[in-house]
Amino acid sequence: MADNIGNKAAKQFSENTEFANNGSFHVKGAVHYDWGMKDRLSRIFNPASGNTVMLAFDHGYFMGPVSGLERLDLLIPKLANHADCLMGTRGAIRSCVPPTFNKSIALRASSGSSVLQDDLSHESMVVDIEDAIKMNASAIAIQTFIGADGQKETIEELNRAVNLGSKFSIPVMGVVAVGKEMERTTQFFLLATRMLAEFGVQMVKTYYCDDFGKVAAACPVPLVVAGGKKISEKDALSLAYHSIQGGAAGVDMGRNIFQSEDPEAMIQAVAKVVHEGYSDQEAYEFFLQLTKDNTQ
Ligand code: R5P
After folding, report:
1. What are phi and psi of 251, to 5 degrees?
2. Which of 17-26, 95-104, 245-254 has the lowest average pLDDT?
3. Alpha-carbon distances, residue 47 vs 13, 24, 33, 52, 249 (angstroms)
4. Active-site residue among 28, 38, 205, 272?
5. Which end of the chain, N or C, is less surrounded by CB atoms within 10 Å?
6. What average pLDDT is seen over the chain?
7. Buried (b) or exposed (e) across 227-261, using 16+ Cβ within 10 A?
């Protein structure tokens, strides 16, 4: 107990100053969440920019060791410092990401299929919420296959995750799946992102599309945009730029970072777009400069 003899009397009450912590919150749709949820969201979405650079390296959970992710133990330490959030499986994170990095984690918590199958749309929540809590996950990511064979089960699993997330203040990231046979139209993304938000997720991972601004406007929680298959660095930075301009709150980018000719330069260039308002051209010039510096 603190010593209470001879203490200075309290007098700085600032009665005429409004309570300073009554205002808004930097994450879309989150103003009425509780403290734990907001704390976790603030670890993912940078309070200064409101946005996130999420580094996705969960591909192995259904694809095995894709190009660039052969040695997570060597790759992730080079990139982690430039990301706000690491998206991976519990196996990859426990074995290859030192906890001393202290980065927010978006834990891939659904699975159920592999590239050896034709139909990848059957996934369920496979990580117990207790294990997500043990890993200090800032969010769990659950994939949902709207319009595909596995629609009903994946919607049920997503809702189960939201129920558990609400119980323990763990945000859920709803992942919009796009499959071989599935549409990638504006109409599809309007439907899928909105459905996931209505189910109660705290953020949605989706893809860029035409009229992306409408998709972002109609979704009451933040959208993070996946990079998709490897394209040129210039095009990937344009994708990031147009996503942010269209109202995304960040990217969840994998292959266009770890398969880049210079992954460290690429993630830093993406961060310039996401957090510092760089245009795609400025970010590309920044990337070229860093690449040049790294080879000298
Ligand atoms: C798929 O395996 C995951 O959902 C990825 O995390 C997501 O697609 C982002 O990675 P990429 O930018 O490589 O598409």
Report:
1. -125, 155
2. 17-26
3. 27, 11, 16, 9, 11
4. 205
5. N
6. 95
7. bbebeebeebbbbbbbbbebbbbbbbbbbbbbbbe
Measured CA distances, 139 to 23, 94, 216 (Å)? 24, 16, 20
DSSP state of 87: E
Instruction: Give CA–CA dist 92/31, Å, rounded.
Output: 33
* DSSP per-residue codes, 54-72: EEE--THHHH-S-TT-TTH
Alpha helices in the chain (DSSP H): 35-44, 60-63, 72-79, 90-96, 129-134, 151-168, 186-199, 212-218, 233-245, 255-258, 263-276, 280-295
Helix (H, G, I), strand (E, B) or coil at 218: helix
Token pair listed for 213: 């601004």
Q: Which CATH number fits domain 35-295: 3.40.50.1460, 3.30.465.10, 3.40.50.1000, 3.20.20.70?
A: 3.20.20.70
Separation of 3 CA from ligand 1 center, angstroms? 55
- How far, in Å, from the CA of 105 to the mean position of ligand 1? 15
Atom of ligand 1 nearest to the CA of 56: 6
Respond yes or no: is residue 205 known to be catalytic.
yes
Query: Is the pLDDT confidence value at 180 over 70?
Result: no
Site to substitute for ligand 1 among 87, 176, 182, 252, most atoms within 8 A of C-beta: 252
**For atom 7 of ligand 1, which residue has the closest CA?**
226
State if pTM tops 0.70: yes
**Average pLDDT of the segment spanning 1-9:** 79
Can you give the C-alpha Rg of the chain in angstroms?
Answer: 20
* Mean pLDDT, residues 213-240: 97
Q: Tell how far the Cα of 54 is from the centroid of ligand 1, in angstroms.
A: 10
CA proximity to 193, closest of 242, 244, 248: 248
Say what the pLDDT of residue 98 is: 96
DSSP for 170-184 reads --EEEEEP--TTS--
